[in-house]
Structure formats: C-alpha cells, structure tokens
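To start, an entry.
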Amino acid sequence: MEYIEGLLILFGGVGTLLIGMAMLSDNMKKLANTKLEAIFNKTSEKKLVGLGIGAGTTAIVQSSSLTTVMIVGLVNAGMITLLQATTMIMGVNIGTTITGHIASLQSFDFVIFAMITVFIGSFMVMLAKKEKIRTIGKVLCGLGLVFVGLHLLGSAMSSFRDDPFVVDLLSSITNPLLLLLIGAGLTAVFQSSSAITSIVISLAVAGIVIGNGGNDVLFVILGSNIGTCVTAMLSSVGANTNAKRAAFIHLTFNVLGSVIFMIILFVWPNFKDDLFARYFHLEATQIAMFHTFFNVICAALFLPFSQQFVNLSKRLIPDKDDKSRRIVVLDERLLGTPSLALHQLRKEIGIMSDLAIESLNNAYDAFIDKDVNRKETIQEKIANINHINKQIVQYLVKLSGEELNEEEKKELSILYSVINDLERIGDLSDNLTKYTDTYVYEKLTFSDTATEDLNNMMDKVNALFKVSMKTFELNSEEELHLVDELEEDVDRMRKEIIESHIRRLNEGTCSANNSPVLVNLVSNLERAADHMTFIAHVRTLTE
C-alpha cells in the first residue's frame, strides 16, 4: 500500500511540476511579450549576441522547447537568418539549465513559502482587475507549483528509498548508452528536459543512486539534452527548408556535444567526483552544476564553428524550387507570442504595400505607353495582393483567438484596416488596365498637355504613398500634415485636369470620346490617394 501511495505521489508531483512549469512559462512569456520583440529585433550576425539572446529568452520564459519552437518559427518566417538561429539555439541550452538549479534547491525545506506564493498568486488572479497584475499572479502560482511539485517528487523518492525493488532496479542500470537512451526517451515523452533533470535531481536528494554512482547519473542528463530536440524536429514538419535546417542544427549540436562528453566520461571515470564533488557537497548541486558546465563548454566549443553547422545543414538539406510560394510564410508557431506575430504581420503588410504601388504604377505606365500586353502581368500582381490579403486575414483571425492585451487588440484592428486599403489600391490598378484597353482598341488620343498633367498627378500619388507608409510603419504623426497637403494636391489636380479637358473640348482641340476614360482614370487615382491617406491616419481613426 505504501508503494502505491508513493507511486501516486510521484505521478502527482510530476503533474504538478509540469503544470507549474507551463503556467510559469506561458505567463512569463506574456509579461515579456513586448520585450521579446525588442530582443529579437536586436539580432545581428555577432555570435555572442545570438548566444545571449537564446540564453536570456529561455531564462525568461523558462522553457527551452518554447524558445526553440519560436526560433524555428522566426527562421520559417524569414525574420532571422539561419546563422542567427544557430547561435541562439546554442544559447537556449545554457538558459534551460536554470531549472536544474531551482530543482537542486529542494534540498532546503521551504515548501511552506512556495505554498504561500501560490496562495498570494491565486488571490491576485481572482481579485485583480488589471491584466498585468493577474498575469503576475499566475507567474507566482506557477513558480509556487514548481516548488510544490518538486516537494512531492522528493516525498515520493523518499518513500522509494527504502524499497529494495526500486533501489536495486535503478542501481542495476549501469550501461552508459542505456542510461543516455532513457534520458533521451523520457525527455521526448515529457517534451521537457527540465522535468527530467528535476526528477533526476529529486532522486539524488532522496539518496537514490542511479547505476553504480559516479558518472552514471550524468549520462541521463546527456540523454535529456538529445531528447529535447524532438520538439524542434516536430516543429519543423511542414515548415520551409531553413526551418528544417534549424531543427537539424539543434539536433546535430546536442548529439555532437553529448558524444564528446560521453567519451570524456568513459575515459575519466572519476570526472564528477574530481570536478564537482570536491567543490559542491550536495549531490543535487553537483548534477545541476554539471548540466550548466556541459552546455557552456559545448557552446564555447561550437560557437566559432556556427557557419560550418549552417553549411553542413545546407548541404544535407538542399533548397527546393517552390514557385508556387507567393509570400513569406505567416508562421503559426509565433501566435503564442503576439508581439512577434504582429511584427511578422507588419512585414507581410510591407510586402503587400510594395505590390500594391507596383501594380498601380505598372497599370498607369501601361496606359501611358498604350501597352495592353502588360495586362496579364499586372493582374498576376493583383492576384498576389488578394492572396496575401486572404492569408493575413486568416492569420489575424487566429491571432485574435489568443490572449491579447488592449494595445495588441487595437493593433490587430489597425492592421485589418490597412490591408483592406491596400487591397483596394490593387483593385483600382485593375480598373486602369480596362481603361488602357479602351484607349488602345478605340484608338483614342490625348494631347501632350493632358499626358503631362496626368504624369504630374501620378508623381503626387507616389509621393503620397511613400509618406503615408512611412507614417504608418514608424507609428509617427509628425508628417500627417504633409500627407494631408499631398492628398489635397491630388484632389486639386483631378479637378484641374477635368476642367482643362472641358476647356479643350470647347476649343475643339480634344475629342469628346476621351472624356469617360480621362475622367475615370483621374477619379481612380484620386480614390487610390484617399486609401493612402486612410493608411496614414489609421491610428488616429481607430482611437
């Protein structure tokens, strides 16, 4: 009966630990949401910067799996390079070792303080009105549950300590390769190397020996580093080539590091005693320190060869010529981190805006050049704009289902409004192609004065677009007065062009057959200018 009770406490401890880590990770991620965007925006080709970003992010969100999935998503979205991802992944392994040190603290009896933390956190969640305070409460609950889970694990291990069957079973596993596979397999099942490390440390706290003692327990830790790669490998399924390469680099880096340290442990039987037991009295601390030592040394060894890891991945996973792919993928792995997802959306809108103004200019140039053969190319661009719009809307809908703060909800509404305006500019380009058909097939002619006036108006539209997008992208209202001036100029020029056309009609220097095409053309250019102005004013209009 005591054995069954200990087993139930063990299951409860593991469950409490995993729930606590999930709560801690999810809510730390929410608190650090905007900071994570700032961190990833600081990415550079400097290897130490990437290493620090990977380690720091993992330390913040308390989950190497989450950070690795985010990195794969960022690579898939084209937001970071493969080299940057490689250095970050090396840093992730360092950041995740913090959990091991937290687990080693269970040697000290402070479960009462952990329970008080859960108590305080739960009241903050129930009573606070501000979302940020409630999130902090959930962080406290998660942190407290982690320690409660560790306490339950310790209690379960203490009950097994006197059980000959359990002690003999664990001490009988002396094959280093088998110990490594056990660590890798359990980590793959639990999807958390931190959980496995915590269980191993709990065994050590209870005085239960794995294998013959000495280095044997360290092989399990090495295996957990390999098992954690499963999450990244699964995350890369269905992703683009670079994302698959990032997952492969993660696996290669961890496997190679584990192999090197396995050899060291084989040829140096007293490795743990000589390097760690001498300075750290507690077995749990020795294991936690080894976990950190292992990952720091591997990062130091492999960081100078980051580019070689990238080159190897490119050789083994070659590029695929995917002509059907029209845009950078809006990666759903980033939905759980709204600030990064919104950053990705803004990049997609940048692509959409470039296509919108290109299609408008191409359609206008085709009109001026009387070239009906460009119509198919222009319509392909318009179809691409519509495709991007559909993809963005679908992504916005999915993102709206996540837990967003008020600022993120407002940004979501703003982006939705902007893509509608950009799509309308693309639709107006299609109208221009129809006027070109009429211009050519009905053999219409425009005077040099009319053409010059149209060119001047189009120049104003292009200037307006440039300032409007700059105002939107920089979230700056400083140039709104310039936007309004340019929009007024476009309105004035439309009126002047129509008035000049009427004057030429009265003078007999222009044909009445030109009127529908000319009036519709300048009206469509003015409507395009209106949508550009809406984009510039979108933040003030949504307040």
Residues 337-541 form a domain with the Methane Monooxygenase Hydroxylase; Chain G, domain 1 fold (CATH 1.20.58.220). Confidence is low (pLDDT under 50) at residues 322-327.
